[in-house]
Amino acid sequence: MKKLIIGIGGMTNGGKSTLSKSIQEHVPNSCIVAQDTFFKDDSVVAVDSNGFKQYDVLDALHMDGMMSDIRTWLKDPESFLTFRGWKTSFPQIPKADEVYVLIIEGFLIFNYRPLNEIMDKKYFLTIPYELCKKRRCSRVYTPPDPPGYFDGHVWPMYLKNRKEMEETVSDLVYLDGMKSREELFGTVYEEVMLEIQRLLGIFHSSL
Ligand SMILES: Nc1ncnc2c1ncn2[C@@H]1O[C@H](COP(=O)(O)OP(=O)(O)OP(=O)(O)O)[C@@H](O)[C@H]1O
Ligand SMILES: NC(=O)c1ccc[n+]([C@@H]2O[C@H](CO)[C@@H](O)[C@H]2O)c1
C-alpha cells in the first residue's frame, strides 16, 4: 500500500475547505483532516490588550490531537477511512494497487514543523485583502468575530504567520484563490492523479 499526503493551506476564506472537499470527493481512498476541528475551547484561548481572543495562533489549536489523528491514518489508512466514515463510492481497486491519500487542510498547517515534514505536496491559497475581508465578514464562526476583529487580529496575525512560514518552508505551490472553484480543482486534481500514477509506477510519455 502506498501513501500520499497533500497539504491544502492558505489564508482565512481563501477556499481551503471548498477545494479540499472537491479533491476528496474525486480521489479514491482519500480523506481530510481539517485543522479547524482542533480549536481549543473558547475559555482557554488567550485574550490581548484590546480584548481580542487570540484564535489565529498555533497556541489556540490542539496540534497534538491533530498529529495523533494523522498518526492513526499513517498506521492504517484503510481502517481510518472505514471508522471515520470516509466512504468511497469508487469501484474497489485491487489492494496492491492502492494509494491512500490524506488531505491536511488548514490555515496554519505550514507553520507547524511536524506537519511540514510529512507532507508530499504543499498548496497555499491566497486572495487579496479586500476579498478576504468581504468573505470573512459574511461568515459566522463560533464564537462570532467581534467588531474590528479582522483588522485587529485576523489580518495582522496572517501577515505574521505568513512571514514565519515563508522563512521556513520553501516548497510551497501558491494558488490564486480568485480563480473559479472548477479551475482550482482541475489544477490540483490533475497533479494529485499524476502523483498517484507515479507512485503506482504508471508513467506517461508525451510521444
Ligand atoms: N474559488 C472560489 N471562488 C469564489 N468563491 C469561493 C471559492 N472558493 C471558496 N469560495 C467561497 O468563499 C468562502 C470561503 O470558502 P472556504 O470555506 O472554502 O474557505 P476556507 O479557506 O476553508 O475558510 P476558513 O478556513 O477561514 O473558514 C465560502 O463562502 C466559499 O463558498
Ligand atoms: N472554533 C472555531 O472553529 C473558530 C473559532 C473562532 C475563530 N475561528 C477562525 O477560524 C479561522 C481559521 O479557519 C481563524 O481565522 C479563526 O479566527 C475559528
TrEMBL record:
Belongs to the uridine kinase family. NRK subfamily. InterPro entries: P-loop_NTPase (IPR027417). One of its GO terms (biological process) is pyridine nucleotide biosynthetic process. One of its GO terms (molecular function) is metal ion binding. The keyword Zinc does not apply. Gene3D superfamilies: P-loop containing nucleotide triphosphate hydrolases. This is Nicotinamide riboside kinase 1. Pathway: Cofactor biosynthesis; NAD(+) biosynthesis. It holds the Pfam family AAA_18. Keywords: ATP-binding, Kinase, Magnesium, Metal-binding, Nucleotide-binding, Pyridine nucleotide biosynthesis, Transferase. PANTHER family: URIDINE KINASE. One of its GO terms (cellular component) is cytosol. It comes from Aldrovandia affinis. It catalyses: beta-D-ribosylnicotinate + ATP = nicotinate beta-D-ribonucleotide + ADP + H(+); beta-nicotinamide D-riboside + ATP = beta-nicotinamide D-ribonucleotide + ADP + H(+). SUPFAM superfamilies: P-loop containing nucleoside triphosphate hydrolases.
